[in-house]
Write a structure and sequence with these properties.
This protein has about 90 residues and is an alpha+beta fold. It is about 30% helix and about 15% strand. Strands 2-1-3 form a three-stranded antiparallel sheet. Bound molecules: zinc ion (ZN). Zinc ion (ZN) binds next to loops.
Length: about 90
């Protein structure tokens, strides 16, 4: 039985529609992966597709806590690399 749970970003702690979040999964083998398709088996955690959220999660080690497994800094850097740079505010 599966309950639909809200998807909460581990960075900003806000709930967002799933498609706006990146799913990170800890596989049954204990690997930490970015789950692009959103259907990999394992324990999942979510973070917004925003660099600030990834950075916040990194600062608080939030993914490791959500996944109950160590998450290397390198992994966060991989996540950051997947997010395109957004224009900062209103550029005239
Ligand atoms: Zn967020």
């Amino acid at each position: 039985m599966k309950r639909a749970r809200p998807r909460t970003c581990t960075g900003c702690r806000e709930e967002s529609p799933k498609r706006e979040l990146i799913r990170v999964v800890r596989t049954p083998e204990g690997e930490i992966l970015v789950d692009a398709a959103g259907r990999h088996p394992g324990r999942g955690a979510y973070v917004c597709r925003k660099k600030e959220c990834v950075l916040e999660a990194m600062k608080r080690n939030a993914l490791a806590r959500a996944l109950r497994a160590p998450v290397e800094r390198k992994f966060y850097e991989t996540l950051l690399g997947m997010i395109p740079d957004e224009p900062e505010g209103d550029i005239p």
